[in-house]
Amino acid sequence: MKNRIYILSIFTLLMSSCAAIYNPIEPSYLSYELAGNYNGLKLSYRYEILAELNNKRYAKKERKHKIKLVAVKIENTGNQTLVLGKDFNLTSNGQAIDFINTADAYQKLKQKNWQALSFLLLAFTPPVQTTNGASVADFPLGVVAGPMLAAGNIFVAINANKQFQSELQSNTILGSTIKPQETRYGIVIINTAEENLIEIKF
């Protein structure tokens, strides 16, 4: 009975330690609803993208740290080149938005590699009995499977984090120059737990 409880406890821990792949956001391929037209600048955005794309690990961290990752689309229908952060800004309820830079957001949201080391606990599970003809032998399945699963999950986490970090870096829209008739897509990370209205202010 004690062994069953021990194995069940380890199984529960391991299920919460599994690394997850990263599903790219790709802001330019998302569908948007127009949020507002500000003197020729059309603004659209989407919250909850991590959760919608089944990036549960990252979405959980997003909720934990009370920040919001937002996909943004800005279309310049005017005849002047405009720079985000210089000629206009993104605001919320008339106030400046508290943005988090890409590096800090990545550190908050990335998957932790050390959690995969929990799989090494399998080494302490009872051996599996195998039968070969008339003989019965104990096979240390946990000793073999534990390190393999730990290494595999670490690899998955590292690869997913690299993809996530790369996408954040390549989709930074703050400070972007938007030429006439050009549409820019990107990602912003906001220091808030709420899905507040986002506006453009000149």
Mean pLDDT: 83
Q: Which quaternary structure do these chains form? A: single chain
Query: Whole-number radius of gyration?
Result: 24 Å
Enumerate the spans where pLDDT stays under 50 for 5 or more consecutive residues. 5-16, 134-141
Overall body shape: elongated
Quickly list its features.
single chain; 202 residues; alpha+beta; four-stranded antiparallel beta sheet; 5 helices
Description:
It is a single chain. By secondary structure, the protein is of the alpha+beta class. It has one domain. Helices cover 32% and strands 25% of the residues. The chain has five helices and eleven strands. It has helices at 2-15, 49-52, 56-64, 102-109, 141-170, and strands at residues 34-38, 41-46, 68-76, 82-83, 89-92, 95-96, 128-132, 135-139, 177-178, 183-190, 199-201. Strands 1-2-3-10 form a four-stranded antiparallel beta sheet, with no helix packed on it. A three-stranded antiparallel beta sheet has the order 6-5-11, with no helix packed on it. The chain has a two-stranded antiparallel sheet with strand order 4-9. A hairpin with a 2-residue loop joins strand 5 and strand 6 (95-96). The termini are far apart.
